Amino acid sequence: MEREKVMENLQGLGKEVLAELEAGRSPTIEIPVRTLSNIKFNEVKEQLELGSSVSKRNFMNVAHSRKFMQTLLVAAWINKDLLSKNLHTSLRDMYYALKRTIPGTKENTFEDQHTESDPIVVDLETALDVLREELHLNADVRGRVVGNVVIEDRGDTVDWSKLGSGGWSIPSNVEDIKFKEVDAKYILLIEKNAAFERLHEDKFWKHENCILITSQGQAARGVRRLANRLSIEHNVPLYVFTDCDAYGWYIYSVIKWGSMNLAHVSNKLGTSNARFLGLTMTDIEKYGLEGYTIKAKDMDIKRAKELLKYPWFKHEEWQKEIKIMIKKGYKAELEALSSKGLRFITNTYLPDKIGSKDFLP
Amino acid sequence: MEREKVMENLQGLGKEVLAELEAGRSPTIEIPVRTLSNIKFNEVKEQLELGSSVSKRNFMNVAHSRKFMQTLLVAAWINKDLLSKNLHTSLRDMYYALKRTIPGTKENTFEDQHTESDPIVVDLETALDVLREELHLNADVRGRVVGNVVIEDRGDTVDWSKLGSGGWSIPSNVEDIKFKEVDAKYILLIEKNAAFERLHEDKFWKHENCILITSQGQAARGVRRLANRLSIEHNVPLYVFTDCDAYGWYIYSVIKWGSMNLAHVSNKLGTSNARFLGLTMTDIEKYGLEGYTIKAKDMDIKRAKELLKYPWFKHEEWQKEIKIMIKKGYKAELEALSSKGLRFITNTYLPDKIGSKDFLP
């Protein structure tokens, strides 16, 4: 969404409040409900999303008025101090910038970031149907990318195929990036940095003509949004490659279907046509990695049983994989492939899996 | 050190063992001792370093023979599978690549990575006076950089001033990077990514002609080595900018004086001419940030009292700062500067501090 449009929406919120005040009514703000009861899995879009429940924040209700004040304070500040000046900042900086004692009272605008100012930003994200990044509030950064892609960003032209061993550091906010050239058969999004480094050193992305991304653990918002934009805007398939454990599979789940916490932005952060490349329990048997597995802890099994129940893991293939894990009681890391030789992943495993389209849905 | 030289050193280790075997003696390997008793602070070099104690690992001593086997196994593998093939990998991949049952026995080469194969790498680092990166074993990556610097890396020419909002992702291994052009008055190494993003968006590095690095927390080895190489090889001062707490000050301490864990490589990872720019307790008072401090926890005070006793924090200015913290019982984050406005850090705080050379030693 254009910056001007986001500003209009924020100002619209203020104008509605003003109109109600001028009409002598107590102003209200409507915010979609984000509790579990209002989070649905849309089977057609294959995405988590919010249902239609809405809560009203009423200024004249004593239980609501503090939050009401905070909502308007944050909305006004984002409009005036971030968007109109074209500045970006973090949630923590915003908290410090807005924290103060309200003149003539002993009341502070905010007492705590995580329970007070952060949730207001999610409220605005939901109520205005914009990304936090479109409100110029950056999230944590993690992850890097290489491949045959040329982008334009802040006036610079950056060629992802000419960045040495480092690669391009994925920023938190990728909204304003322009893709000038995207030449790739697929995107390979890898949980572990070590596997990314192996493939990058072997110039896998060059030989295979693909884009390599590492999320370095759970994918940050910037990584999810970048994968989403590349895959959808340029029609490039997205393959996800994680450890063979409930944690790795959940990373895939968030990249594909979205997360319950952020169900209101699944369409922008989730990429529902993503496919799971590996590591699967079936791979462990097929490639003889049994000697390099790790005994699952109670937590791993508990988490696997939870995945089993999620509607988005109801596909027969996933049910089978998860059940094998629970039965066998072990898990495996990407690095287990190195037991077959450091370049096994580059020369055998990935060409095999991608060539035969051996993916999970 | 050149790859060929490192290989010679590794092969030298093997040749000595062979000579002893051929002479009918039990082979031994000498490894400098890394326990606390052998870690010294060199007041002249301003660096942590190892003393002269050495331990002997003797093949015919039952208590040593397993470790002896592991040392030779790792040394041979690094020589043959990494250096001679010019491949790099992670400690975890190495563990998987070397783990197996020794034929004809029930003995595994390794049972655990962290207690068995990782320490062998540090042994070799110490015994051969090389960096783990020179053995082609990569560490975790974290951190990014921007500035007027052009490097050559893996055949690519990368201009750090033309990388959009992302910046160059600092790899774990920066040994082979060639600096083609370095145009900077100083390097500013920042703990927090949010402050880096603020300064990057404000093009602070361009206006000030400096190099901006964020470590995103404790500095990874790649960040420390990059700062060391840039500062020493190109004679550029290094200023470190962290939160005002014992954790932030310890980040500075490791960047400047080295760490106890890695005392054997302080000369390569530490930059003893680094200066601490902020945030100091004195800054909090000077800039009126008292309302934006955080009450120190018991752990914070305990850690501050430890810093007070380290010989490298014996400078009068540091003693004063640490004592103020203990007395006041609070700490502050970089983001507290945003309470004065988002651009206070760019327009006031940093120009003030750098202009008046208001640094701690």
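qc> The CA atoms of residues 40 and 328 of chain B lie 32 Å apart.
qc> done
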